[in-house]
Amino acid sequence: MSDITPPEAVVKQLKATFKQSRNAYGSGNTDESRRLALKGMALAEEHGLPGEAAVFQAQLLLLEKRWDDTVALLIPVVPRAFSMQGHAWFNMGMGYAGKQDYDRAIECWQQALDTPGYDTPGYAWGNMGIAYAGKRDYARAIECHQKALDTPGFDTPGAAWTNMGIAYADKQDYDRAIACYQKALDTPGFDWPGHAWANMGIAYADKQEYERAIACYQKALDTPGFDWPGHAWANMGIAYAGKQEYARAIECYQKSLDTPGFDWPGRAWANMGLAYAGKQEYERAIACCQKALDTPAFDAAGHAWFYMGFAYAGNQEYDRAIECYQKALDTPGYDRPGDAWFYTGSAYTSKRDFDRAIECYQKALDTHDFHMPGHAWFYMGFTYARNWDCDRAIECYQKALDTSGYERPGDAWRYMGDAYTVKQDLQKALDCYREALAAYARAGAASDEVGTRRMCDFIQRLLDGQ
Length: 466
Description:
The protein is mostly helical. Helix 17 packs antiparallel against helix 18. It is elongated, with a radius of gyration of 29 Å.
């Protein structure tokens, strides 16, 4: 590398050109980013500055997603001090991030921040935040985005607010996520408003505020230049499915599939299958799930197998359902194994294979992050009751009731009352039925309030006659 000291005016022009190219890349304008990178590389070569030229050459490689080549180019460049050494560290970090080697990416960006003369620290902090989010270290991600926002002269605050919102959403702090997306939208000159609206929709959907979610997705779709319309349609479908408006959900999934360049067709087919299952059109559901599985490079096969199993169970084809749930469990990376074990248990219960059903419910309960423990305890109790093991059934119903957030306590009390009735412990049965009626009243809805009230009256008459 040359020891030439470039004129200050040239360094200033090179750094400004790099910043412009980086901003064009961040705005999705790859042609402009490439033009500026070529301009910067030509200027560096004109002045005999190989290190600076390598920085712009790396920028061109990043535009082509040639991550390994980027890193290989810059490894011999970054040790020498030159006017854009910090920028070289930054681009090497981008190469490692593209390879999903987040630890090395973070090391590179820290080196950029520690390099004298590095003039875009906000970019390094912002990308470091994205890398920490990739490592699921969301607290550090949020800290980094805040440091980006606190950087004097930082010129892409809207992007930092958006990425901070994504980190909060990943922490399941949806209200803060929504607040961040709104700050992004309120930022003058923010060039990704459609993305902020779409992410806000996802946050509202996760809060089960589906009407607001749908409104946000529509605003994203109405945004000029929004480049993820297929994703917005697909997510709108998920929101309609959450409202149990399955016909509209299917329409949205179809619109996503009809969108040129939509890169998640397998997921849309799988979700369409689940929506058809919600409509009890099980044959169509199975066909859609198969289309998902037949999609090249489909990355959520476990979910498609699970949804297909759900459809077969709805069609009372329990053996096929069990096969599908097992295929979901056998899929590398499938992230809802507890659900698959739970529904396998349900299928075995329907087959009256009670021992296997109980084993499956227990496996669901033993699964890390299983989100339906109350339901698993309830159905385990129901299975024991069908096998006339009332004592164990009562224990399970009680565990369901003791589960934080269990949303169907009325049913647990109701079936516990049935178990006590079979045991001929009439006073306890009556107490359980009364608890069930109270729980139904608090919830404002009941699975079997009329039947429970009749059982209350029946048991009371039996007690009065003793």
